[in-house]
Amino acid sequence: MGDNRMNKKKEERLVNKLKRLLRRLKAPRYLHKFGPKTYEFYEHLQALVVKAYCKLSYRRIKYLLDSLGIRCPSKSALHYTMQRISSAFWQKMLELTSKRMHYLVALDSTGFSRENPSYHYLRRINGAIPKIPVKLSCTFDTKKKKFCAAKIRVLPAHDIKDAKYLLDKTDAEIAVMDKAYDANWLHEYCLKNNVQAHIPIREYGKVRHHHYSARRKAAKHFRLRTYHRRELIESGNSALKRKYGTSVSSRSAQMIRAELYLRLNCNNLFLKIIEI
What we know:
This protein is of the alpha/beta class.
């Protein structure tokens, strides 16, 4: 009897936590002000979070929640909700679930395939492996083990293109990155915004003049022990793929971004629930 009360209390706490998060995001009670007002916005979001966590389709999550006696919108309504939610909303939700205040963050990128073919199929097409056009660049709080900000590109791009955006969204004191981010303009940006960057320097040859650039000055204060904190974002990316999959099922760029943002928020949200 006591265990049932504890489980019920924890379940109510999870629902309240999701409602509190939407209130902090200043989200409307209903997704569409001219709609039928049958389901509230938190019920849509609750179904989408469970869908991402259980790696189910829209049809299966509808069947699962109905079987458990939980109110759930139709599969088409859930798909429409994913289309309506903007990337700015997901990013704001990511900031709140990571608790905003960050001290040391790591930047890195990883790839997701658009499809997940079987090895039997790959053997039949002479081993031609599909390309990985979807790229996820993100910042990771190495202490809280949570994702702080993300930038999703459908086409291949260099890692450094998203560094300024990610640092703006994170507002951390220390940032660790690999050699791909070693650029003088990025060091100047970090110096201007009081961000201590630890990036291993790439050797372009001997210095031909005595005027040291920003990257040369940053190399003098480079600390290897702090830089090794970057390994935690690789563990975070690996855990994200193992829990939620290495491929995306969506086809359009908008839905791909929404799907990956939902996975990142789901990762942060369930880590926050475990901390309770």
